[in-house]
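User: For a teaching handout, I'd like to show students what a predicted protein-ligand complex looks like in token form. I'll give you the sequence and the SMILES for adenosine-5'-triphosphate. Please answer with just the structure.
Assistant: Understood, here is the input followed by the structure.
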Amino acid sequence: MTSPASNPIIGQSACTQALRQLIKTIAASSSTALVTGESGTGKELVAQALHLQGPRAEGRFVPINCGAIPRELIESELFGHRKGTFTGAVADRVGRFELAHGGTLFLDEIGDLPMDMQVKLLRVLQERCILPVGASREVPVDVRVVAATHRNLEEEVQAGRFREDLYYRINVLPIRTTPLRERPGDLPELLGFYARKHAMPGNKPIGFAPDMLDMLAGYGWPGNVRELSNLVDRFSTLFPGQTLTCQLVPSCMLPSGLVALQTQRLGREQVAPWQIHQPARVEPAVVMAALQADPAAPAGDRPAFDPVLHAMEIASAVHSPEAQLAVPVPKPAASASNDEINAVEEAIFLAQGIQPLPPEGISLKQHLVNIERGLIEQALSRTEGNVSRTAKLLQLQRTTLIEKINKYDLRASS
Ligand SMILES: Nc1ncnc2c1ncn2[C@@H]1O[C@H](COP(=O)(O)OP(=O)(O)OP(=O)(O)O)[C@@H](O)[C@H]1O
Ligand SMILES: [Mg+2]
């Protein structure tokens, strides 16, 4: 509740540059500012910047989320209370206004403030004095108020849910944060910033190939910068140090809006997991969290559940041996039949290169021979028959590889 971290406001789009300039200009003022914008667009970041760049930076930045505090406690939270005023008031309590004396009070989600509290807040903003619950004397406070809401307060006023007089009182310096989809010019810098922030220890930050950047620029980003940060965090865990292309990322790791764009670009068959050449180390918990991503998306936006494709995608994303052993079978849609569930399990095994054990059993020795032969064939084909490069790819001695090539009667270039 003291000084906020001085996180930079990232982005080179015209509106973000204008936002930084506006903050610089009005940080010096003590007038009330109202920050509006969609969720995740940086309203709190703006409030922090106003505090840190202004003359009150030495004082406290005190946030309070008006929508998250039970209505019977809001008054005491904001203005404090005197001991014995109500059950549980065992001592005097200083409210957030007093805590923010000399600093900034950030009234987040002010649109959620109950009507009776709106009246009291208006009075405090006009008088610059608070009356703690149960107190007989008012206490003067010197506080800069920054309010924020994701609601359209003019509409709330029209609907009778927000007092018009309070709206005008707090809307002295209006600041609007722009949705990310309206400023695609910010994407490269934001992606780079969060790639560095979320880079896995010992790995360089992930990169974004031009086709991936292009795809991300066409996405609607309903969760704005918060969603972008979370997505980059996910990619950084799944593909540490890699450069992401549209083909690399399995669709089950993307929000539904991006799956649609990916499918448009590549066609459904090409999004298949066998396009992933570089297996990633994945924590099973991360995979399961990723599978549950985007639960808020309307059902109509989600692609139909295809158990086999789904399982193949998961299996590819968790291609490391450790993850393969531990990854639980994904839960298909509630309506999936037993057959579909079996298909999911089978597809996971197949995608991992593991043949499901048939009821009659299997010759393990022959099976391992087949796997070895298959991998040598693949490696030879990738290196166009070059023995040295194939040996390197399979981490074998050159002589050992030649023995195996002869044993399986495979062809290498001389
Ligand atoms: N321009 C930006 N540059 C860097 N980071 C940003 C930017 N905008 C937002 N963020 C980051 O995105 C996250 C969400 O921002 P913030 O909490 O300020 O959004 P908000 O508008 O208050 O969202 P909500 O309405 O959901 O509370 C934070 O981690 C913040 O640091
Ligand atoms: Mg916020």
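For the handout, you might add this sentence: The pocket of adenosine-5'-triphosphate (ligand 1) is lined by residues 7, 9-11, 16, 37, 39-45, 150, 225-226, 229 (CB under 6 Å).
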